[in-house]
């Protein structure tokens, strides 16, 4: 009897009176006799043939019916025995089984849901019991609640307590400044040590896409980490050049970036390790030079997953190991240090002096004395104050500062993002003469005294106004930087949400010459300067922000309600940096799609800018949308599409675990059988194995060609032999070398030309420059440098179909291409369903283990024979057996995978890492990596007119689809 | 859109009106050193009855779109714009519209010159210094297709 059955029976028997037991069919005959005998001792004397009522049918081992029939029966005994049985039976019937709710006494068709809360719905006879039970449960519930709830809701929602609670909750995962705004509207995920909004709770996938392509989408990117480097320019460049390579494009030392006029981006590697051991992509921004100084400041913006590695690598190359211990000022700063009179007034409420207010606040003030009032966490809340955030080097003089969470970064994507900015932001107004004459602790009045600073501010303001005359953000040179000082945007908050649109009239007003200048060259160098670069100004601005409450009070005092506050309060000047983000730069279609602006703010001002931006009719996107953004741009997205980085590898592992869990949560019968679909690794991409196998194939191909000068053609017979031979070969011949991702611009350009079909339109493009035509010698030369490489490709489907994550990119055979030539109906070929060898193997193992245990022998021998695996599977089984015993899931290949490339009828070249229906292209589009060796091998064997046509198959389907490959530089 | 600069090549297809290298470049660049990146032509605010013609969309589709605007869209007039290579197609569309209306529609054509911006990015940015930007001109046509006033 199986465990579940036993349990069921036990449950059934729990409430039974001891003297009566039900015999069960599953129990063997011996126990049933026991049962019969144990029914009652009085029964012995009673007639045995009555027991036949308890036992059905012929009892074998008793050898027919009872041997000794009693001759007579005593009435008294008989009646007594029956009476006992009847009483036992009655007891059993009265007692409810299972849940001891009163409903159990009712037949199912008479139960109603409303009975559970309304006793009067119950039949009269049950009401009393029900009310008793209800009381009992209420008492229990009350007791439980008493334990968890400590304070009333009102107390919990009180500002100070709420802040304490919020601070407690963000100890583990950092909150962005817009966290509460997001948490109300987004599905939040805890990722990379932050709480981030993944996707909105409302249905707005398409509206968000439309916002990106025609209006503006806003994202909070403050979780990106900023690392500041300070030092002499040439020293900085010298040490940073170890981390990058010129082959991958412009580096830190690109002339335009060094001047501070453009933001640059670069892929970083571990020191001197190019092309292997990538760290990840970063964007960087130099502070414009000051006159006569070679001391420079550089901000490097990196994703949080790569921050630690990047930081340690930077410390190594800059030799910055001395941690600068900063005094722990920001945490225990008394609130009345640098505040204006206005702030003083406000803060007086919070400080302990407020105890003089007699009754209302007594309770709070008592607590205030005990501990300092809770302060809103600004910046990094998880870091302990003793952790060093700054390192300097005595030999090179370079200082590294970790500015994580110090600067808020918002990204606006879309052609109208600049008009959203010009609507929202107003250049800072000058302060009047009276305030100028007084010395002030605020930064802006001090700056107003300096003439040169004001002329610079005027220039920046002019350029900012010129921005209004531009129709689309894509018209500006990519990466343009503009520094600016703006008024507090809360002052100009519209009462209703309005959609910011570029204004035609304004466009005419703006000086045409200036507009041209901006479009051609971007902002001049001195206008890229911003006071956001200065720590002291940042702190001052953060410290002196007017609270929302105070602002509302001031608004309420305005003479005409709803008008703008005049004069602008002195604290409301914020230095910001505007950085242009280039849109799609690669490829021919949809160029500069998704261009926009980044807005950098000092910390603490996040919400003050967020709400006004939202009121300009932008859409808000989460992590999900940034993935879609990069997908439409055809660009790799950071942790997802960097398999050669540590962070990328980690991400893949997490993703695999997550997908596997999701898969296992489904009932086994409803799971996709990936083995039958011929999909070896549905949840991950074994890049290393792929690259190694392709290297082996090319090597073999070369030898073969040397032998009989015949191009290798992978056919069915070939695959079988390979399946048997390749995995052990790799282990023997290959010293472990890691795969790389090809980022060399020149090689990519060559590869991109080779991928195009050389007919009609392609012809014109192929003619460019003296690139060697695609032939075996050129390929060999190319491969000698990049055998172990993967290359980032974009695939667009020729027919219908939606590519999915981890879909297989395969090479078509000759017959497939013939199919394509007909053009009648380009349905791709089908993969024949695979046989599930692993299943029988697991089954056999199971039966084997059962045989070892003596309990069961019911498994049919015949079925075992029927699923006897064929010899090939047996061979595989031998290979896989030791591992599959640990954790074998039905429908998934156990761990040492057989040869990946030749597992299916078409040779695998790579996998998709992002795939979806692309709204911008109007067809399915996939992004992924393919092995360079595999790709070239395929291209060589393809006829010219079909060059660059591959097959794509989703892991859950057997249907191959034709795709066009694009390598974009 | 990174094609090495080569005066012989005509333009690549763009989403918005296609342009050709009509003006010969004043500065001859070394083809190896620079990458040419063409920016999109400057966009202007668009009314509902403006049709920008390009070379990528199917001709019949564009014609049908114009027809629909005139018939069902309730517009008495539409403007067909074409730039560079697409001038020919814009004229073609306008004439087809006129022909199919049995003379009810009238045309009024205007030509103009559009300034386009090219970015020249040095392939080795560290040594070559600044990337260059230059402007060139291209012709455009704007055809007003309208029903004449009844009087």
Characterise the protein shown here.
The complex is a heterodimer of chains A (969) and B (151). Chain A has 969 residues and is α+β, with helices and mostly antiparallel strands. Chain A folds into 6 domains: 13-95, no CATH class; 105-147, no CATH class; 204-222 and 407-549 and 565-634, no CATH class; 223-326 and 388-404, Alpha-Beta Plaits; 674-835 and 897-966, Beta Barrel (Elongation Factor Tu (Ef-tu), domain 3); 837-853 and 860-884, no CATH class. Chain A has 36 helices and 23 strands. In chain A, the strands form 4 sheets. In chain A, strands 6-7-8-5-11-10-9 form a 7-stranded antiparallel sheet. Chain A has a 6-stranded mixed sheet with strand order 13-14-15-12-4-16. A 6-stranded antiparallel β-barrel of chain A has the order 18-21-20-19-22-23. The radius of gyration of chain A is 38 Å and the shape is globular. The two termini of chain A are 67 Å apart. Chain B has one domain: Translation Initiation Factor IF3 (2-Layer Sandwich). In chain B, strand 3, helix 1 and strand 4 form a beta-alpha-beta unit. Chain B has 151 residues and is of the alpha+beta class. Residues 1-29 of chain B have low confidence and may be disordered. Chain B has a 6-stranded mixed sheet. Chain B contains 3 helices and 6 strands. Chain B has helices at residues 59-71, 86-100, 125-128, and strands at 3-4, 34-38, 50-52, 77-83, 106-122, 132-146. Chain B is elongated and about 65 Å long. The termini of chain B are far apart. In chain B, helix 1 (59-71) packs across helix 2. Classes of the chains: A alpha+beta (969), B alpha+beta (151). The interface between A and B is medium-sized, with 34 and 33 residues. Chain B: Residues 120-129 have a biased composition (Acidic residues). Chain B: It is found in: Cytoplasmic granule; Nucleus, Nucleolus. Chain B: Belongs to the histone-like Alba family. Chain B: Component of ribonuclease P, a ribonucleoprotein complex that generates mature tRNA molecules by cleaving their 5'-ends. Also a component of the MRP ribonuclease complex, which cleaves pre-rRNA sequences. Chain B: Pfam families: Rpp20. Chain A: Residues 1-61, 132-158, 350-389, 701-735, 825-891 are annotated as: Disordered.
């Amino acid at each position: 009897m199986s465990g579940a059955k036993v349990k069921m029976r036990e449950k059934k028997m729990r409430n039974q009176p001891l003297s009566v037991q039900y015999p069960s069919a599953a129990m063997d005959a011996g126990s049933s006799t026991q049962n019969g005998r144990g029914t009652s001792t009085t029964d012995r004397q009673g007639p045995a043939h009555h027991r036949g009522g308890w036992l059905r049918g012929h009892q074998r081992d008793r050898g027919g019916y009872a041997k000794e029939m009693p001759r007579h029966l005593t009435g008294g005994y008989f009646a007594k025995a029956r009476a006992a049985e009847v009483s036992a039976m009655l007891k059993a019937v009265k007692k409810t089984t299972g849940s001891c709710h009163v409903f159990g006494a009712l037949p199912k068709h008479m139960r109603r849901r409303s009975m559970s809360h309304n006793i009067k719905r119950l039949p009269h006879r049950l009401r009393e019991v029900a009310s008793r039970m209800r009381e009992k449960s209420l008492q229990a519930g009350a007791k439980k609640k008493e334990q968890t709830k400590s304070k009333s809701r009102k107390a919990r929602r009180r500002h100070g307590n709420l802040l304490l609670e919020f601070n407690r909750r963000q100890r583990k995962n950092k909150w962005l400044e817009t966290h509460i705004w997001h948490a109300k509207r987004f599905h939040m995920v805890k990722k990379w040590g932050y709480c981030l909004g993944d996707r909105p709770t409302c249905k707005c996938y398409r509206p968000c896409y439309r916002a990106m392509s025609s209006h503006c989408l806003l994202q909070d990117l403050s979780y990106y980490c900023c690392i500041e480097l300070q030092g002499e320019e040439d020293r900085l460049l010298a040490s940073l050049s170890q981390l990058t390579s010129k082959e991958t494009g412009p580096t830190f030392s690109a002339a335009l970036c060094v001047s501070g006029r453009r933001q640059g981006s670069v892929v970083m590697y571990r020191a001197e390790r190019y092309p292997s051991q990538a760290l990840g992509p970063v964007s960087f921004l130099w502070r414009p030079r000051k006159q006569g100084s070679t001391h420079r400041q550089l901000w490097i913006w990196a994703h949080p997953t790569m921050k630690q590695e990047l930081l340690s690598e930077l410390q190594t190359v800059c030799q910055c190991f001395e941690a600068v211990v900063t005094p722990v000022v920001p945490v225990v700063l008394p609130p009345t240090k640098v505040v204006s009179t206005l702030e003083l007034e406000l803060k007086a409420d919070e400080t302990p002096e407020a105890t003089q207010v007699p009754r209302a606040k007594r309770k709070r003030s008592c607590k205030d004395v005990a501990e300092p009032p809770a302060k809103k966490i600004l910046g990094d809340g998880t870091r302990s104050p003793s952790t060093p955030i700054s390192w300097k080097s005595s030999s090179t003089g370079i200082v590294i500062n970790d500015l994580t969470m110090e600067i808020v970064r918002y990204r606006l994507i879309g052609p109208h993002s600049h008009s959203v900015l010009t609507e929202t932001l107003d250049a800072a107004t000058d302060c009047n003469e009276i305030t100028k004459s007084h010395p002030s602790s605020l930064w802006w009045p001090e700056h107003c005294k300096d003439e040169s600073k004001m002329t610079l501010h005027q220039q920046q303001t002019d350029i900012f106004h010129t921005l209004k005359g531009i129709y689309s953000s894509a018209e500006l040179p990519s990466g343009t930087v503009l520094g600016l000082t703006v008024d507090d945007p809360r002052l100009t908050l519209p009462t209703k949400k309005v959609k910011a649109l570029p204004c035609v009239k304004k466009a005419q007003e703006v000086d045409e010459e200036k507009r041209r200048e901006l479009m051609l060259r971007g902002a001049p160098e001195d206008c890229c300067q911003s006071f956001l670069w200065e720590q002291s100004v940042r702190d001052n601005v953060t410290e002196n922000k007017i609270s929302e409450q105070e602002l509302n009070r001031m608004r309420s005092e305005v003479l005409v309600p709803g008008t703008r506050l005049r004069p602008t309060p002195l604290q409301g000047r914020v230095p910001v940096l505007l950085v242009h983000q280039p849109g799609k730069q690669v490829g021919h279609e949809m160029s500069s799609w998704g261009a926009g602006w980044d807005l950098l703010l000092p910390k603490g001002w996040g919400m003050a800018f967020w709400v006004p931006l939202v009121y300009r009719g932008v859409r808000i996107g989460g992590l999900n949308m940034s993935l879609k953004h990069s997908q439409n741009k055809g660009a790799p997205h950071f942790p997802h599409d960097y398999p050669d980085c540590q962070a990328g590898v980690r991400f893949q592992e997490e993703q695999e675990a997550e997908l596997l869990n999701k898969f296992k949560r489904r009932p086994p019968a409803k799971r996709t059988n990936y083995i039958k679909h011929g999909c070896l690794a549905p949840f991950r991409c074994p890049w290393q194995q792929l690259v190694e196998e392709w290297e082996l194939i090319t090597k073999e191909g070369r030898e073969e060609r040397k032998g009989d000068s015949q191009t290798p053609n992978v056919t069915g017979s070939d695959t079988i032999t390979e399946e048997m031979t390749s995995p052990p070969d790799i282990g023997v011949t290959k010293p472990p070398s890691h795969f790389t991702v090809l980022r060399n611009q020149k090689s990519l350009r060559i590869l991109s030309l080779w991928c195009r079909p050389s007919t009609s339109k392609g012809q014109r493009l192929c003619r460019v420059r003296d690139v060697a035509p695609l032939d075996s010698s050129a390929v060999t030369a190319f491969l000698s440098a990049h055998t172990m490489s993967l290359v980032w490709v974009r695939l667009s489907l020729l027919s219908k179909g939606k590519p999915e994550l981890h879909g297989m990119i395969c090479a078509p055979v000759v017959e497939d291409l013939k199919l394509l030539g007909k053009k009648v109906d380009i349905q791709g070929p089908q993969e024949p369903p695979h046989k599930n060898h692993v299943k029988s193997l697991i089954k056999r193992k199971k039966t084997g283990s059962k045989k070892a245990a003596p309990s069961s022998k019911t498994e049919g021998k015949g079925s075992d024979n029927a699923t006897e695996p064929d010899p090939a599977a047996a061979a595989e089984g031998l290979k896989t057996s030791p591992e599959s015993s640990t954790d074998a899931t039905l429908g998934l290949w156990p761990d040492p995978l057989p040869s990946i490339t030749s597992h299916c009828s078409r040779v695998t070249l790579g996998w998709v890492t992002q795939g979806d229906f692309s709204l911008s292209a109007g067809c399915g589009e996939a992004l992924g990596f393919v092995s360079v060796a595999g790709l070239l091998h395929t291209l060589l064997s393809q006829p010219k007119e079909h060059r660059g046509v591959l097959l794509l198959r989703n892991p859950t389907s057997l249907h191959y689809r034709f795709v066009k490959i694009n390598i974009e530089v | 859109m990174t094609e090495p600069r080569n005066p012989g090549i005509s333009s690549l297809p763009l989403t918005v009106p296609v342009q050709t290298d009509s003006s010969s470049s004043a500065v001859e660049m070394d083809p190896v050193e620079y990458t040419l990146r063409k920016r999109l032509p400057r966009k202007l605010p668009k009314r509902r009855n403006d049709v920008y013609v390009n070379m990528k969309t199917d001709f019949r589709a564009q014609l049908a779109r114009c027809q629909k605007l005139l018939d069902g869209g309730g517009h008495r007039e539409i403007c067909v714009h074409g730039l560079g290579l697409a001038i020919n197609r814009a004229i073609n569309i306008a004439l087809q519209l006129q022909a199919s209306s049995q003379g009810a529609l009238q045309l009024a054509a205007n030509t103009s010159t559009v300034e386009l911006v090219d970015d020249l990015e040095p392939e080795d940015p560290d040594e070559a210094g600044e990337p260059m930007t230059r402007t060139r001109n291209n012709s455009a046509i704007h055809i007003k297709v309208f029903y004449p006033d009844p009087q």
